Amino acid sequence: MARAWKLHDNVNTDEIIPGRYNMTTDRASLARHCLCEVRPDFPAGVKPGDIIVGGRNFGCGSSREHAPIAIQTCGVVAVVAPSFARIFYRNAVNIGLPLLVCPESERIEEGDEIEVDIAAGTVSNRTRNEIYNVEPLPAFIGRIAEAGGILEFIKTYGWEGVGA
Amino acid sequence: MGTLAEEIFSRRVGRQVRAGEIVVAPVDYVMSHDNTTPIAIESFKKLGMPIWDPERVIIVFDHMIPAPTRQAAQQHRDIRDFMAENGLTTLLTDGICHQVLVEKGYIVPGGLVVGADSHSCTYGALGCFGTGMGSTDVAVIYATGKSWFRVPETMRISLHGHLQPGVYAKDACLALARTLDVDGATYMAMEFGGEAVDGMDISERMTLSNMSIEMGAKAGLVEPDERTLAYVAPRARDPFEPVYPVDPTYAREVELDVSLLEPQVSCPNEVSNVVGVTEVQGTPLDQVFIGTCTNGRLDDMAIAAGVLEGKTVNPNTRLIVTPASRDVYAEAARLGYLQTFMEAGAQVNTPGCGPCIGRHQGVLTAGERALTTQNRNFKGRMGDPTSELFLGSPATAAASAIAGHIADPRQFV
């Protein structure tokens, strides 16, 4: 069972990891500053297995991969939102951070106990006793996710494996 | 047959493709900068493959140059070492990546260039499909020269009429952001046209394309015309053949008459939070910043210098001017613009991203308020999270620096 950290619409990558704190590739340092200004209680309060529930257009703005890395390093197992910004979406898939497109995620409130079932494509809200459906990943993106990210995908299949 | 985006990808992959298809396409160049290269290097090493083509991997130092901290200096050192180990020779330190790639002829109509920076969509101004990706995607391109793309649907943006004096491409773009909101074009290519765009020079078109990501777009394209070819011909590093839309079908069409548009200002903390300048004039400002990949080019310097000529920056505010590239800097010096800025009391910085990312050369402290010509005003972007950013044109910025508060530039032009 995981705690939901509920965030607003249009969370941008500057909010996820501010520019002052991303002059490094040190994962622990990125995690320490993850969401530190919009949710000062997050870096110390987040526990492995927790889930971020964003509003629409989650991850907009800069292309910094530091953003999904920071979230992943905090132990967050998935980000659930009605929609994601494009570059963040690619970056998260590439590093193996699951993103769940869930139109009904607005019903989840801060601190709700939730559970994601990626294979089944559902988000269960234990606090409210509700189950929400997740939009399936486009087939090709699903293959990258299944491989564990784009590096593993390329190492295993190469571009020939795309069949495009 | 297709939109400019579809036509570019069709030619790349040698068959007719349509929006929605996934394609694997070779790029002309791949670019990463001093902030995104370190993670790309880590991912590249995990891949364990050699560099695809050392001539086509471009590294730019612009986000923290000259190095403001020992940490930044070390990051530069590590990147230089990686380049030496892998035979990479194209390290550009001439200014902001997008400006420099365009100036130095890496960007051509019909091209495909990926940058590890969200504003790589700027290249669309020349009819090149430029798009931003993250470091790991870019590391894969370092190694393979290719990436996967979902051919995007296209939103056609028609800007009708002619901009009034004192109103610029930046204002049109901010008005568009208000209309479309910050995710109105997510996953799509924007294709700009109409008589207002036809009348814009390359620099102004770059402002439009640059800001397309602020509406979520994957690319911000302008169909090439005579101006494009005249700009590119003396610069292009490779032979090129322009691509044009052919009987395009658009997913959405947006029309905007810019004739009656007044100068626009985007208010904190969202780019789409846009009002006419008259609604916010008088708002006191601690700092004004003119520069960035959005509005740091020679015409922007000329506009700002025209407003500031013989005037003085208000003692309650400070003006920072940062030309986007060494070429812009040199030309602005030669034409006397930098002299005008300095005589007005501005601080003129060396080319680079500067305070746009809140690291150096003009960081804001708690509660301070700035008006800037950059493309995004996210909370804390220029420093303290309680500071506030307003976005406007170089003319609005210059007029505001003189007034010490947000001011309508039309009184000066």
Question: What would you say this structure looks like, in words?
Answer:
The complex is a heterodimer of chains A (164) and B (413). Chain A has a single domain (2-135), classed as Aconitase, domain 4 (Alpha-Beta Barrel), CATH 3.20.19. Chain A contains seven helices and seven strands. In chain A, α6 crosses α7 (150-157). By secondary structure, chain A is an alpha/beta fold. Chain A is globular and about 45 Å long. With 413 residues, chain B is of the alpha/beta class. Chain B has two domains: 4-156 and 181-237, Aconitase, domain 3 (2-Layer Sandwich); 266-411, 2-Layer Sandwich (Aconitase, domain 3), CATH 3.30.499.10. Helices cover 32% and strands 19% of the residues of chain B. Chain B has 15 helices and 18 strands. Chain B has a five-stranded parallel sheet with strand order 4-3-2-5-6, with helices on one face. In chain B, strands 16-15-14-17-18 form a five-stranded parallel sheet. A four-stranded parallel sheet of chain B has the order 10-9-8-11. In chain B, α6 runs parallel beside α8, α12 (298-308) packs across α14 (337-344) and α12 (298-308) runs parallel beside α15. The chains are: A alpha/beta (164), B alpha/beta (413). Chains A and B meet through α4, α5 and α7 of A and β1, α2, α3, α5 and β7 of B.
List the helices and strands and how they pair.
The complex is a heterodimer of chains A (164) and B (413).
Chain A: E1 2-6, H1 13-16, H2 27-32, H3 42-45, E2 51-53, H4 66-73, E3 78-81, H5 86-95, E4 99-101, E5 113-117, E6 122-125, E7 130-133, H6 139-147, H7 150-157
Parallel strand pairs in A: 1-2, 2-3, 3-4
Antiparallel strand pairs in A: 1-5, 5-6, 6-7
Helix pairs in contact in A: 6-7
Chain B: H1 4-13, E1 22-26, E2 29-33, H2 37-47, E3 57-60, H3 70-85, E4 91-92, H4 97-103, E5 112-115, E6 129-132, H5 135-144, E7 146-150, E8 154-160, H6 169-180, E9 189-193, H7 195-198, H8 202-210, E10 219-222, H9 226-232, E11 252-257, E12 264-266, E13 274-276, H10 277-280, E14 287-291, H11 292-295, H12 298-308, E15 318-322, H13 326-334, H14 337-344, E16 347-348, E17 369-372, E18 388-391, H15 394-403
Parallel strand pairs in B: 2-3, 2-5, 3-4, 5-6, 8-9, 8-11, 9-10, 14-15, 14-17, 15-16, 17-18
Antiparallel strand pairs in B: 1-7, 12-13
Helix pairs in contact in B: 2-5, 6-8, 12-14, 12-15
